[in-house]
């Protein structure tokens, strides 16, 4: 498993929801070669969110094209019946939504038992206290800064204090704070200054580039990272 352990340095995780669906393998290779730290995979079931994307088979198909971390964001309900398939498909981090079912503690234990790191995602209306009693079961908390289901949406500023509250709650624990939705070089600085270390970006990384023009991916990644690090 490529997850190399916890650190709080800024990490950029391009979301392949904004990539060319007909060329995922080469798109993943291109963003990694251009500086991506993790690859973010948005799984949507058309039920928990009003959109449908891809499943464990796609995750297994891109695994050989990614040397680093595959960060799987499950926008599905229920999640438990699919966790084993995603673990077997090579997911390094498996994140379930706190709103996806009544047994979050059980789901988190199951993810860790399968091998991957366990994450919890919070929709914009969900308070941070939802994870208060599962802090020792998680490796990552994902703050949704858009309502999940689509890329290219605007960043919801009201989530910034939630990031700071989570940073306080986490204390010295090895738990990543991931920000997902509307992250650009304009919004990255505020996220980092509030305590985030993982920045997911779809449209802001893939815009203007392609597997034929990967340098644009690199420039976009660099701009987001620079804005975040400048705010630390
Ligand atoms: C939305 C997804 C995000 C999305 C981010 O439900 O979870 O990962 O792809 O895309 P941008 O960065 O374009 O908002
Ligand atoms: Zn996502």
How would you characterize the overall build of this protein?
- With 232 residues, this protein is α/β, with parallel strands linked by helices.
- The protein has eight helices and eight strands.
- The protein has helices spanning 24-33, 56-62, 80-88, 104-114, 160-170, 188-194, 203-206, 214-230, and strands at 11-14, 38-44, 69-75, 93-97, 117-122, 140-144, 176-180, 198-201.
- Strands 1-8-7-6-5-4-3-2 form an eight-stranded parallel beta sheet.
- Helix 2 runs parallel beside helix 3, helix 3 (80-88) packs parallel to helix 4 (104-114) and helix 6 packs across helix 8.
- The model has no long low-confidence stretch (mean pLDDT 97).
- The structure holds D-xylitol-5-phosphate and zinc ion.
- The site of zinc ion has 6 residues, from strand 2.
What would a concise description of this structure say?
By secondary structure, this protein is α/β, with parallel strands linked by helices. Helix content is 33%, strand content 19%.
Largest sheet composition: 8 strands, parallel
Strand content: 15-25%
Give me the secondary-structure category: alpha/beta
Care to count the β-strands?
8
Instruction: Tell me the quaternary state.
Output: single chain
Which stretches of 5+ consecutive residues score pLDDT under 50?
Answer: none
**Rg calc:** 16 Å
The pLDDT mean sits at 97
Q: Largest beta sheet: what is the strand line-up?
A: 1-8-7-6-5-4-3-2
Order of helices and strands: EHEHEHEHEEHEHEHH
- Put simply, the count of helices is 8
């Amino acid at each position: 498993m490529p997850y190399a352990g916890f650190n709080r340095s800024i990490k950029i995780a391009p979301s392949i929801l904004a990539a060319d669906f007909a060329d995922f393998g080469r798109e993943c290779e291109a963003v990694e070669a251009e500086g991506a730290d993790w690859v973010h995979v948005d799984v949507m079931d058309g039920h928990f969110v009003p959109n449908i994307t891809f499943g464990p088979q796609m995750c297994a198909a891109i695994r050989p094209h990614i040397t680093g971390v595959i960060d799987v964001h499950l926008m599905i309900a229920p999640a438990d019946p699919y966790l084993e398939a995603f673990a077997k498909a090579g997911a390094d981090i498996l994140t379930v939504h706190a709103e996806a079912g009544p047994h979050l503690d059980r789901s988190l234990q199951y993810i860790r038992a399968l091998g991957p790191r366990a994450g919890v995602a919070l929709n914009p209306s969900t308070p941070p206290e939802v994870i208060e009693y599962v802090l020792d079961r998680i490796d990552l908390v994902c703050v949704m800064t858009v309502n999940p289901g689509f890329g290219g949406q605007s960043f919801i500023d009201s989530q910034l204090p939630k990031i700071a509250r989570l940073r306080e709650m986490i204390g010295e624990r090895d738990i990543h704070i991931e920000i997902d939705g509307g992250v650009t070089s304009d919004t990255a600085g505020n996220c980092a200054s509030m305590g985030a270390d993982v920045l997911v970006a779809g449209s802001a990384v893939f815009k203007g580039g392609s597997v034929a023009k990967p340098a644009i991916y690199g420039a976009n990644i660099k701009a987001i990272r620079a804005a975040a690090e400048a705010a630390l």
